[in-house]
Amino acid sequence: MQIGIVGKPNVGKTTFFNAAACADAEMANYPFTTIDANRGVMYARTKCPCREHGLQCHPNAGKCIDGIRYVPIEAIDVAGLVPKAHEGRGLGNKFLDDLRQASCLIHIVDVSGSTDEEGRPCGKDSSHDPAEDVKFLEEEIDFWIQGLLKKDWQRVSMRCKLEGVKIEKMLADKLTGLGIKEHQIKTAIRRAGLSSEAVQWNDEDLLAFSTHVRQVAKPILLALNKADKADTELINRFQGEYAIPTSAMSELALVKAAEHGMIDYKPGDDSFTVLKEMDDKQKKGLEYIRTHVLERFGSTGVQQCIDRAVFDLLNLIAVYPVEDEHKLCDKKGNVLPDVFLLPKGSTVIDLAEKVHSDLAEGFIRAVDARTKKIIGHDHELTNGDIIHIIAK
Questions:
Q1: What is the C-alpha to C-alpha distance for residues 201 and 149, in angstroms, rounded to an integer?
Q2: 142-213 sits in which CATH class?
Q3: What is the DSSP string of 87-141?
Q4: 2-126+219-308, superfamily in CATH?
Q5: Which of 9-13, 103-107, 287-291, 373-377 has the lowest average pLDDT?
Q6: Model pTM?
Q7: Strand runs labelled E in 163-288
Q8: Which of 169, 226, 342, 367 has the most neighbouring CB atoms within 10 Å?
Q9: Sign of CA dihedral 43, 232, 77, 146
Q10: Distance (Å, rounded) from C-alpha 29 to C-alpha 21?
Q11: pLDDT per residue over 355-387, tens digit each?
């Protein structure tokens, strides 16, 4: 699974990426700093069952701190998007191609309005409406998808009619490179209120479908970055389930300070504790973060964006497969070594397939490690389940 970090140039995308992925990608105050996509690993937080069972887990990937499991997620930070990117302007084509396999997008928005539509700093007495940035990014992706569909549309739509090919199958074939599934296409067609006769679709219909399939297959969470520089009234215009006040620069500063042992801080915390003496500049910087970010918003927002994207926007659950339901370990004795993210509603057989195809093919039964009850292949999983799968 991959999450795309997107937005226009110079809004703090790479700062967000570096803070979230503990990476060191280039940052600068000018457009197109990021020419090639930066890739890294972010971590989504979930409660680990280890504390519940009085155990110390041994993650193969990620980490567990104070009973909170940090589950690795691939992140991609791409070049800034500018208006008419779908026509190839700026680094538009590369940007859009880099996002083909993203399961969802975190849109970094300069909610302070300090940068224009091109990502250039606004003048001292001027500002830019960040709502325009939200609108333009969505439209660019919609036009991009529409452009992919318009290629050979008459020919393929006529083929649907003459050969009886279902429209969702045809669209799935055309959009397979974007990681868009047939069931998502069906949902988009229904929501757009379109006919199942592809030959009847015009450009307007294709755009309507593109909008709905983007909403279904590439959902977007808004990271309202530079929130410490923005008026509360402006931030409140965006407030909702998938819009989070954020200060990526503050998170990066806190993460770096924690790495150097200067403070005690974990991503997502609402406060920090000073551990070492520091100079006046460092003290002033940390005090600013405390008063203007943590006390105002409850966190820097970066970790909350990741968690909300994974568990709410994508509606995933965390499940722990083990080979011993009593000791909750693998064959080597490692406690809760693996955790898999699956769509809510997934079953035991879905988990088996995720772990290894052989496990699914040879499936006999499974055991719920909490209840010790035997469960079948169609048993629906819930967040935090610990499952022992028994196969031939």
A1: 11
A2: mainly alpha
A3: GT-TTHHHHHHHTTT-SEEEEEEETT--B-TTSPBPPTT----HHHHHHHHHHHH
A4: P-loop containing nucleotide triphosphate hydrolases (3.40.50.300)
A5: 9-13
A6: 0.90
A7: 220-225, 243-245, 263-264, 273-274
A8: 226
A9: positive
A10: 20
A11: 999 999 999 999 999 999 999 999 999 999 999
